[in-house]
Design goal:
This protein has 2 domains: 15-185, Gyrase A, domain 2 (2-Layer Sandwich); 204-311, Elongation Factor Tu (Ef-tu), domain 3. The protein is built from 6 helices and 18 strands. It has helices spanning 38-45, 89-101, 126-132, 168-179, 188-196, 233-242, and strands at 21-24, 28-34, 59-60, 63-64, 70-72, 75-79, 82-88, 109-112, 116-122, 144-147, 150-154, 161-167, 183-184, 247-254, 264-266, 272-282, 285-293, 310-312. A 6-stranded mixed beta sheet has the order 10-11-12-9-1-13, sandwiched between helices. The chain has a 5-stranded antiparallel beta sheet with strand order 3-6-7-2-8. Strands 15-16-17-14-18 form a 5-stranded antiparallel beta sheet. It starts with 20 loop residues before the first strand and ends in a 14-residue tail after the last strand.
């Protein structure tokens, strides 16, 4: 993104430290799909129902290779007749290149948006912060409202949380307006909210490492088992109807340094039994999401540097009784 705020030297890194936190989401990028066939094209490429997505909603979806391994888990929504997809900046160009390979004769244009900035607002008073800055507030989780070319998305989290996609020319003024009632914080605070919501992210280090069920994508509404084909659909559907994942994503806590995505998770014997999906610093150490062998999920887990890992609950169930997303 072209515009980036200057943060103060000392900023909080946990959402609990302020009524509202204001974060620059510079670790994310936006892809846009437009044209007469854009909806049909994305519907055929992603794991979720794009054609059935209401205009005032956002939705997670998986983008898989032919073997069902994830390239990305973008959040998408519609701006008039254009689709916006948010995903990590370090994978955006690779995902864009791969999507373009399948355009063929479809009337769809794909590009990375360099004219917008992404901001995050979260906390017990986040909605009030938006209102005082003159912004409309989405009423329910996963709803989207617009003010001109700015989109405001309400996202899952243990507290109120909103993502703003703002034209660069308006970003500095909007940041200043929001900063009147919110405390500036780094993007790590946003990552922590993703982790606490159990939302998976695919970074460059974990590209093509996981099938959707390994990162619980069907538990957070990111997979439709009723739509038509998409790359990897057969593998994803077979796991859903005929088996159960041998690996799942769990939420964990460590007392030391924050590991990077793609780092190994070890069992008590030092055997590799999992992979870090995402991690962020917290008040005492860090919290993380990791894909683990289900049979090893309770066994003296640790990071390669010796840090022990403590299992934490997720905000959704992983057992067979939990209803998969439609």
């Amino acid at each position: 993104m072209a515009w980036t705020p200057v943060l103060p030297e000392a900023v909080p890194h946990t959402p609990a430290t302020a009524d509202a936190l204001l974060m620059p989401l510079t670790h994310l990028a936006v892809l846009e799909a437009s044209g007469a066939d854009a909806t049909a094209f994305l519907h055929a490429q992603l794991s979720n129902d794009v054609q059935g997505l209401p205009a005032d909603r956002s939705r997670l979806a998986g983008y898989c290779n032919a073997k069902g391994r994830l390239y990305a888990v973008p959040r998408l929504w519609r701006m008039d007749d254009r689709w916006q997809l948010v995903l990590p900046a370090d994978t955006a160009d690779a995902v864009l290149k791969r999507l373009r390979m399948f355009v063929l004769r479809s009337r769809v244009a794909l590009h990375r948006r360099e004219d917008v900035s992404l901001l995050g607002v979260a906390g017990p008073r986040a909605a009030d912060c938006l209102r005082q800055a003159g912004l409309p507030v989405p009423g329910e989780v996963d709803t989207v409202v617009a003010r001109g070319e700015t989109s405001i998305l309400r996202l899952p989290a243990p507290i109120e949380r909103f993502a703003l996609c703002v034209p660069d020319g308006e970003a500095a003024a909007l940041w200043a307006a929001l900063a009147g009632t919110a405390t500036a914080a780094p993007a790590a605070a946003w990552l922590l909210l993703d982790i606490d919501a159990g939302l998976p992210t695919i970074y460059a280090a974990t590209l093509e490492s996981f099938v959707p069920q390994m990162v619980n994508l069907e538990r957070v509404g990111g997979v439709s088992f009723r739509k038509g084909c998409y790359p990897g659909q057969e593998i994803v559907a077979r796991m859903h109807y005929l088996g159960k994942p041998s690996r799942r994503m769990y939420r964990l806590r460590a007392a030391g340094a924050t590991p990077t995505a793609g780092s190994a998770v070890l069992d008590a014997a030092g055997h590799e039994v999992g992979t870090v999906v995402d991690a962020a610093p917290a008040a005492a150490g860090c919290r993380l999401l990791a894909v683990l062998q289900v049979t090893a999920a309770e066994d003296g887990l640790r990071l390669p540097d010796g840090q022990p890992l403590e299992r934490l609950p997720l905000p959704y169930a992983l057992d067979d009784a939990a209803e998969a997303a439609g």
